[in-house]
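User: Show me a protein chain along with its predicted structure.
Assistant: Here is one chain, sequence first, then structure tokens.
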Amino acid sequence: MPDISKHPCFNKEARHQYARVHLPIAPQCNIKCNYCNRKYDCVNESRPGVTSNVLSPDQALFYLECLMKIMPNLSVVGIAGPGDPFAQPEITMETLKKVRARFPEMVLCVSSNGLNILPSVEELKELEVTHVTITVNGIDTDITKDIYGWVRYQKRGYFGAEAAGLLLKQQTRAVKALVAAGITTKINMVVVPGVNHHHVAEVALWAKGLGAQLMNPIPMVPVEGTPFEKIPEPQPALIKDLRNKVSGLLPVMTHCARCRADAAGLLGRDSADAARLLSEATRFAVTDEKERPFVAVASNEGILVNQHLGEASRLYIFRETPQGYKLVNQRTTPEKGGGNNRWEELGERLSDCRALLVGGIGPKPSEVLSRSGIQVVEMSGLIDQGLDAVYKGKELRTVTKAEAFKCGSGCRGNAMGCG
């Protein structure tokens, strides 16, 4: 088994001394859990699937380099969301490669639902990823069909028992492969009262038979807006009883903090400075200046960044010149509607832009545009201030979104414009 002396999640004694960071680089998910509602910019909520920002691989490395300067006891880098790291495996593997090359001594780990991790197992081994967590909420499809709304695999959607059966098949293959590769494999199980709480021992027996080394029964957190929002969180006495049952089969993790996808610091004591660095990292961009010389701006009059992307019918395009910033042209945005296609088309229209300055933006367009290589900067204030941040790397003091442009729970970024 790999050394766990500096891994606070796998070694209870290490949690008071060694820090960990989750790099939030995985925005998409390939399954829909009925207890999950992934949220962005949700600073007051601590649970899996929540993050304030999503980073690109280069931004993640920049963030980690900054973090190491203030957190010398950082020993573990993990990727755990906010979606599934293997819904877009190329992003995850690129990030892991960059981290391994820059910090060869770092312990690397990932968490996944197991649906699509199998093709990456050998590469994970080569990168010396020592710890992988797979979340398995049941091995009986009559139970799990009620936990998953859908499963998306190889560009096809599955529902009901068929979805649950496919997921279990892939999870079984994944755990076998991870164990065979010598990677420490932990099984998480989200305990949902009245749905799968009576099924924990069976999952533990299944996990032991496949060679998993550890299990972690996690109490579900009821989340507003999900199908399971009315189901109460499991009582501590129930979780204690379930852990006792599992302990007869597998070692049990008892100190899980149910960490956010952007957690950083000691387990259960995330760093406020890390949260600031995470926000700053979203403004870091590696671009080819010749190919992307422009910056797009959502503005009502071409002076202030004061418009939400969803309501912008046109964008101002600026570039840096020896005589200062010059307005090059104005470009229309795609027609409202069309879902992600609208944002993908906008990404194409802005393919020569290295950044987009906006007063507000929903999580979906932000995600799509970031994948297009466009640095998204949410701010309020003078356009020149934003351009200084992009072109000159100056500190952007107006990074906090103006109240008028904050995206609340009603903002879905669904390409229909702001109502």
